[in-house]
């Protein structure tokens, strides 16, 4: 069990470093590859915990992973290697920012539910799984396997998710005034 916890901790650290790189690139444009380690890891709050060599290694491997995912690219300018964020990386930052904002927002309920309904074919199983994970991370309630509910306006987020996953007509967003026997839903979201 301890090994599982260690792996989960390592994964969280990797994700934090990758997020810090993306956010830094999104706000500053491009940065020199050699400057990545101190700037990024400092932003991620990891400066005091590790040696400089480990900083650079972790930042470079995280940047490499982001490049493999197509979120950043390495470019050469004036004989120096730079890291730039791609359009896909910008969309990812925007999606993550919107998800975080949704979790923090406290809004008055307008007595309407937002449904996300999807029908993604079996050959795109990984996209379907990613969509379900995103719904869960954003605080949606699963009504059925392909039907998720949220009590507040989230059309922008759903549009970002559809663009990121390239789902188009496979994902529908609906606003409904009532759902029968919705007491358990109100209880789940503390709406009563």
TrEMBL record:
Record has Iron-sulfur as a keyword: no
GO molecular function annotation: RNA endonuclease activity
Residues spanning the membrane: 21-48
GO biological process, one term: maintenance of CRISPR repeat elements
Domain Transcriptional repressor PaaX-like central Cas2-like: 107-177
Family matches, as Pfam families: PaaX_M
Keywords: Antiviral defense, Endonuclease, Hydrolase, Magnesium, Membrane, Metal-binding, Nuclease, Transmembrane, Transmembrane helix
Family matches, as PANTHER family: PHENYLACETIC ACID REGULATOR-RELATED TRANSCRIPTIONAL REPRESSOR, TRANSCRIPTIONAL REPRESSOR PAAX
NCBIfam families for the chain: cas2
Name of the molecule in the record: CRISPR-associated endonuclease Cas2
Origin species: Candidatus Kaiserbacteria bacterium RIFCSPHIGHO2_01_FULL_55_17
């Amino acid at each position: 069990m301890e090994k599982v916890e260690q792996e989960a901790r390592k994964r969280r650290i990797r994700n934090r470093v990758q997020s810090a790189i993306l956010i830094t690139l999104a706000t500053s444009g491009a940065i020199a590859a050699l400057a990545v380690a101190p700037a990024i890891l400092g932003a991620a709050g990891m400066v005091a915990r590790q040696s400089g060599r480990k900083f650079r290694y972790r930042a470079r491997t995280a940047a490499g992973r982001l490049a493999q995912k197509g979120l950043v690219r390495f470019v050469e300018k004036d004989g120096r290697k730079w890291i730039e964020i791609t359009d896909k990386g910008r969309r990812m930052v925007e999606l993550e920012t919107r998800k975080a904002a949704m979790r923090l927002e406290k809004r008055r309920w307008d007595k309407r539910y937002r449904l996300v309904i999807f029908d993604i074919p079996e050959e795109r199983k990984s996209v379907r799984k990613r969509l379900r994970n995103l719904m869960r991370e954003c605080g949606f309630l699963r009504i059925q396997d392909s039907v998720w509910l949220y009590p507040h306006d989230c059309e922008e987020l759903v549009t970002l998710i559809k663009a990121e996953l390239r789902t188009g007509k496979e994902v529908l967003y609906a606003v409904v005034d009532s759902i029968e026997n919705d007491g358990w839903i109100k209880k789940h979201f503390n709406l009563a």
